[in-house]
Amino acid sequence: MEHSVIVTGGSRGIGRAIALGAATAGYQVCVNYAHNAKAAEEVVSAIETAGGKAIAVQADMTKEADILRMFTAVDSELAPLTALVNNAGIVDKASKVDGMSLDRLERMFTTNITGPFLCAREAIKRMSTAHGGKGGGIVNISSVAAKTGAPNEYVDYAASKGAIDAMTIGLAKEVAAEGIRVNAVRPGIIYTDIHASGGQPDRVDRFKSVVPMLRGGQPEEIADATLWLLSDHASYVTGALLDVSGGR
């Protein structure tokens, strides 16, 4: 059976690795992006060159209308949706809480919490057996920051991922009898561009000494865990928070 997956934030880093891996696993892929159309189209091109099918869809996770438009595009252009990866997320410049603006907090929580909730809502409407769907899987990309709290740097980001962990557990129980499994992957420090967007492009190399395995992770290592959770090999796994963090 042909089926499709939406990967939010699928143009770079972890999202890109998940999108490419999903195509290899047989999914038709919606590569979502917020701003970088060129990067998204390059992922689509790589998938198509390898014989897969993919589309790039711009949608800002802070805008409900964009999210609805993305799901409508998948409905009309790809096979039935059976998987969602809530990967899109932002981090801001390192700051203590007493220096965080309202604008920063609203942007952080809307992007990292509200967006995934809206995407999950729309995916459930399509995948749930209670809505006439055939079931499916949702994987939320959280962070080990939800455990560490990220003091003096990203307490707001950590809090947003703590919310994602709670959402994962609650939603998993809510839709378990409707054929949908919901899990989260919690990456540690991974070699991606997100650190540069937070003003710390060398962050992985600076912090890898605190990781028991003494190295940063690669996006493909997060992708492998995500795709396992979506696969039939994880058929009895739901509500799980899977740390992929080198032991941190």
From TrEMBL:
Gene3D superfamilies: NAD(P)-binding Rossmann-like Domain. InterPro entries: NAD(P)-bd_dom_sf (IPR036291), Sc_DH/Rdtase_CS (IPR020904), SDR_fam (IPR002347). The keyword Oxidoreductase applies. Keywords: Oxidoreductase. PROSITE patterns: ADH_SHORT. Belongs to the short-chain dehydrogenases/reductases (SDR) family. This is SDR family oxidoreductase.
